[in-house]
Amino acid sequence: MIQDGTAHKAQERGPAQDELIEERFALAGERILAIAKGVEAAEIDGAYAPYFRETAAYIALLLSERRWLQEGGLFDAPLSVLREHNRALYQDILPPQYERCWGNPAYAASQYGMQTGRLLAFLYAELHSQIESVYEGRTQELLIRMELFLEIYQSFVCAQEEGKAAPAYEELEQIVYWFVSDYTAPELEERIRSQLDPSQDFFLRIAEASETEDIRYLYRYGEYITETEEGLARYLSGLSQEKIRRIADVFTEGYRLGFLAGGKDIAKKKTVNIRYPAGFERVIRQAALNFKQMGLDTVVYRASMSIFHRRGAAQVGFCGAPPNRQYLYDHREDEALYLDKRYANRRLAAMRTAYEKYKELAFVHGGPACLEGFGEAPFAPQAKPEACHLSEKQQEISVRLSSESARLVNEYIKGEERSFTIIAFPTPKIGERFEEIFDAVIEINTLDYALYQRIQQTLIDTLDRASAVRIKGCGKNRTDLTVALCPLRDESRETKFENCVADVNIPVGEVFTSPALEGTNGILHVTRVFLNGLEYRDLELHFTEGMVSAYSCGNFALPEEGRKYIKENLLFHHESLPMGEFAIGTNTTAYAAAGKYDIADRLPILIAEKTGPHFALGDTCYSHSEELPVYNPDGKEMIARDNSCSLKRLAGGEGAYFNCHTDITIPYDELGELTALWPDGGSRKIIEGGRFVLPGCEELNRPLTHK
Q1: Band of pLDDT at residue 13, cut at 50, 70 and 90
Q2: Residue 147 and residue 27: Cα distance in Å, rounded?
Q3: Is the separation of the CB atoms in 416 and 215 below 8 Å?
Q4: Which end of the chain has fewer beta carbons closer than 10 Å to its terminal beta carbon, N or C?
Q5: Residues of 578-608 as b/e, b for ≥16 C-beta within 10 angstroms?
Q6: Please, are residues 704 and 588 in contact by the beta-carbon 8 Å criterion?
Q7: Of 526, 566, 555, 533, the residue nearest 379 (C-alpha)
Q8: Which residue in 468, 478, 232, 491 sits closest to 371, CA to CA?
Q9: Nearest alpha carbon to residue 600 among 707, 448, 447
């Protein structure tokens, strides 16, 4: 039997509603099959016929897969058959087939014009996202998309009956608008429950099957699975239970320590959200057991590709392999088809209603524990004018919607009471030395925190005396930046920097602060960096009084394309962002390993940020929990938890938060100097020529010397 992810829905709706849904589903499916076969009574002729027949054929494939699952094929099939089924579901959006796929807005626009092409590409992508509904047994979610397809199809039929080649674009736009508007409330309610309710155990039941060497369980998700996920699962299945427990213990203990370090009571919490990529199930299984011993039930939700839940091109939640990162990038702003103030208000109201319904679950939710995989080759996207793009007005609405959504979430899952942790390990995508690199990363993630705590305290003692820090690049790096620091009122009891050991941010290795925006000026430049899965070449950011005042990159021939790329993917449509964090990474062991294995361009930001000074665009590290005291191991309170933006929350909140935080690291080999500046005009160099020169920090140079 198919694993039914909607049993609770059937119970809430009742038999009559379920029967109606099944009737609608049967009727929609019958008509779509007729369209796919070209025997529909009112079949569309002309240029649009291929789109509707081929899209209907894809829906027919989903329906066939659904029947196969219901008949138990998923559990009986050999690995070769599972691979065939999985490949069939995703082959249309894989390179090079994607070039002539209806989900490619460039191809659809080449056939039907910019506006209609974009909309039809969106429809195809939304239908494609329903692989997840097929595998989780969510009939209603699949049904409403099938009915959307039929409604748009019928509008073309009617237009042709009137002697027109196609309906007016405005008619199609209205169909999409009301589809999204009408179904936002039920879709959000289901999504929020999936993020909070441990009884929704679809993913955990699959992870529990990972204790055997039979990797067929990977194909139960419905996610795209490649030899990478299979290879990772096989590798982990061959590790000793002791090693698996060591990996899981670091992960879960970091989560517990995050509550402890933040002065938060983990005993108030009953659930934790684990986010992970396919292949890590054996570690996740042990982690869930560890959390259970802490009194926490595990919740797992999918990184859905549906328009209702998508977050740009990012995959937040459980995910398989990305079938085509360009495809995800092309559809990152499909909400441009319908986003307006009315819809934004409707979505916010639906969110509040859903959170109010599940407020008891929200109150006891502790926050995310994220395990990331890394190793994939860097991705430099192609900017397609045919893809949907938010207008300036829509960008303003999107920023407001994001801000208000975050504020609403914080109302029900309070920032001052929740925590998180994040850790990363390589996958076989990292290269032929995968197993060796995996062991090296285990060592990096389990370094002696006491040693780093002592050295980092030496750094902090010096930085606490400074009024600012100057950072200058070397070689091709053009950085020349002065970062202002907040003043201390009582040096015996207060500090400006947090001594970060391995708790929420694993691995160990940084001291960080919230800079004073006023007095923070200059240029931040990196020759090449990878942020949120995207490559930036010659990224240059100018800061004026702590705010981004100009920006550029060398990714595109036209400078304006580079600025657009940065605004969309680093500024998230804000006109500017503050410098929310300044930190000095101290994990030279990780930096040396990156050089030894030539994987610096594949490190996740989690590790990369520890390999040099870094600067975050957006909110501070204390966003929504600034009032909560934070203490270093030496007992001093870390007081630099605010800046002049976050303080706006005290006057109502407008402009206080930006709901993003992106770290940009200058690697040691591009760093000329990092100098503490005294209030009286004196100074003390901390790093020079990529090496620590502050007495007491010599141990950090050892890995750099022997890399």
Answers
A1: low
A2: 10
A3: no
A4: N
A5: bbbbbbbbbbbbbbbbbbebebbebbbbbbb
A6: yes
A7: 533
A8: 232
A9: 707
**Beta bridge partners of residue 665, listed in sequence order:** 614
CB contact at 8 A, 540 and 494: no
Residue with tokens 């204390």: 622
Structural contact between residues 119 and 166, judged by C-beta atoms closer than 8 angstroms: no
Collapsed DSSP state (helix, strand, coil) of residue 542 = strand
Tokens of 317: 């939640």
Task: Transcribe 324-374 into DSSP letters.
Answer: -HHHHHHTTTGGGGT--HHHHHHHHHHHHHHHHHTHHHHHTEEEEEEEEEE
Q: What is the DSSP letter of 209?
A: G
- pLDDT tens-digit readout, 385-423: 999 999 999 999 999 999 999 999 999 999 889 999 999
> What residues have CB less than 8 Å from 59, skipping those under 6 apart?
32, 36, 127, 146, 149
Cβ atoms of 515 and 483 within 8 Å: the answer is: yes
| 227-to-80, 87, 215 alpha-carbon distances in Å | 12, 12, 11
Query: What phi and psi values does residue 629 have, to the nearest 5 degrees?
Result: -60, 140
Residues 551 and 566 sit within 8 Å (Cβ to Cβ): yes
The residue with tokens 């080649």 is 165
The type of residue at 571 is L
| 241: exposed, middle or buried (Cβ count in 10 Å: 0-12, 13-18, 19+) | exposed
d(CA 569, CA 576): 12
Q: Give the mean pLDDT of 574-589.
A: 95
Which of 378, 183, 380, 263 shows the shortest CA–CA distance to 630? 263
Secondary structure in 3-state letters for 585-612 = ECCHHHHHHHHHHCCHHHCCHHHHCCCC
705 φ, ψ (degrees, to nearest 5)? -75, -35
- Identity of residue 567: K
How far is 632 from 696, CA to CA, in rounded Å? Answer: 19
Helix axes 588-597, 434-445, angle to 10 degrees: 170
Kindly report, residue by residue over 230-283, the tens digit of the pLDDT. Answer: 999 999 999 999 999 999 999 999 999 889 888 899 999 999 999 999 999 999
Residues 703, 592 contacting (CB under 8 angstroms): yes
Overall residue count recorded for the chain in this entry: 707
Confirm if 299 and 274 have CB atoms less than 8 A apart: yes
Residue 531, pLDDT > 90, answer no
For residue 428, the one-letter residue type is P
In the sheet that 297-299 helps form, which strands lie side by side, from edge to edge? 297-299, 271-275, 365-374, 421-426
Give the per-residue SS3 of 645-668.
CHHHHHHCCCCCCCCCEEEEECCH
| Residue range 61-84, pLDDT digits in tens | 999 999 999 999 998 899 999 999
**Could you tell me which residues come within 8 angstroms of residue 13 by beta carbon, excluding any fewer than 6 positions away?**
21
Question: Residue 275 forms beta bridges with which residues?
Answer: 370
Neighbour-count burial of 575, counting CB atoms closer than 10 A to its CB (0-12 exposed, 13-18 middle, 19+ buried): exposed
Residue 11 has pLDDT above 60, yes or no: no
**Bridge partners of residue 528, in order along the sequence:** 537
Report the alpha-carbon distance of residue 62 to residue 127 in Å, rounded: 9
Taking only Cα atoms into account, the Rg of the chain, rounded to an integer number of angstroms, comes to: 26
**Hey, how many other C-beta atoms are within 10 angstroms of the C-beta on 388?**
20
Tokens of 565: 């790329």
Domain locations along the chain: 7-167, 202-412, 448-677
Q: What is the pLDDT of residue 532?
A: 80
> What sections of 197-226 are H helices per DSSP?
202-208
**Neighbouring-strand partners of residue 564:** none
The closest of 664, 659, 619, 610 to 641, measured between CA atoms, is 619
- How far is residue 526 from each of residues 203, 484, 568, 614, measured CA to CA in Å? 39, 20, 19, 11
First vs last C-alpha separation in the chain: 54
pLDDT: which is higher, 449 or 445: 445
Considering only CA atoms, which of 76, 124, 80, 134 is closest in space to residue 102? 124
Interstrand relation of 661-665 and 480-484 (parallel, antiparallel or unpaired): unpaired
